[in-house]
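User: structure tokens for this one?
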Amino acid sequence: MPRRSSSYGVIVAGLGAMGSAAVHHLATRGARVLGLDRFAPPHVMGSSHGRSRIIREAYFEDPLYVPLVQRAYELWDELAVSAGREILVRTGGVMIGPPDGTVAAGALRSAARHGLPHERLTAAQLNDRCPGFRPTVDMIGVWEPRAGYLVPEAAIAAHLEVAARHGAELRTGEAIVDWRATGDGVEVTTTNAVYRADRLVLALGAWMPRLIRDLDLPLTIERNVLYWFKPTRATTLFDRDRFPIWLCEYAPGLVWYGFPDTGQGVKVALHHQGTAADPDALRRDVGPEEIAYIRALLRTFMPTADGPLVETAVCMYTNTPDEHFIIDRHPAYPQVIVASPCSGHGFKFSSAIGEQLAMLAMDAEPTFDLRPFGIARLTGAASGSSRGAVAD
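Assistant:
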């Protein structure tokens, strides 16, 4: 039987991107915080690994994300100084596709709405700027100078290191079995103990549906494959000081993306084209048909990168139907905060989301408008109090 333990101000369940950031911001604000994870983060079992994650400002998905990512940039830079680690690498970035497509048109819309520095490039100009990428003549590029990539493992480790330095208690290798509300507080049962706290932050990623079954949220888990390819010849075309991060809409609604070569090869992946997955039975082998599909894209758009396959990895997207996040109080238990899923585009925001989660858990007013990420839009239930100030 799990042993009983002392109580905390806040328990954070899950220490991936969102949970590690929440623990950091809670601890640095003086909260008595316990962080729990069934694995030992940073790890490769969930959604927060892969050596690089894109960060970009001209957000094609929706302009409402721009102020949040701008705050995230500030916090990533502060974290790098606090932890003494390289976390954010600015390479520039380009959003590629037809002028009226989701990616290019959306990036231009966000840039215009928020007055962001950017350049619109023709296909020829894009090829001159990034000779390693060969767009088709009907494509344009939207260049944004502040884009780049985050090192996810370093980011999570840094958040946890700083949190521990400020008194956070971190317990890993300890799976959460269940939780329940107890008056104004919560009780969390793990495989090792029973913990009590005033507040609970659920940041469980792909395991979220199993621990908020009462809400019946329409969440889906999607398998996503990452690939690293060695170029066909020795070249500096893809070095990080010459080659940007990029996203490319190569057919209507179909997007792939990639990174410069940081020593392991050129990393590429498809976005939102994976199959349904079970987080406890995730298929981690990559089939020849999957490799053939991504190679066909390389041959078309990045032929010099179409060399030997060096490595693959598999991660998970946890998706809402509208692909927006969930950041809200549980409608029945306001002492419980639901953080994530992030629908495959959340890592870049995690430093800023962790800050907002800390405010919610400490009953402070969030500094961003979290209403677009409310639970009610998915269930029809009354939303928790996550209003905050309007960021736009």
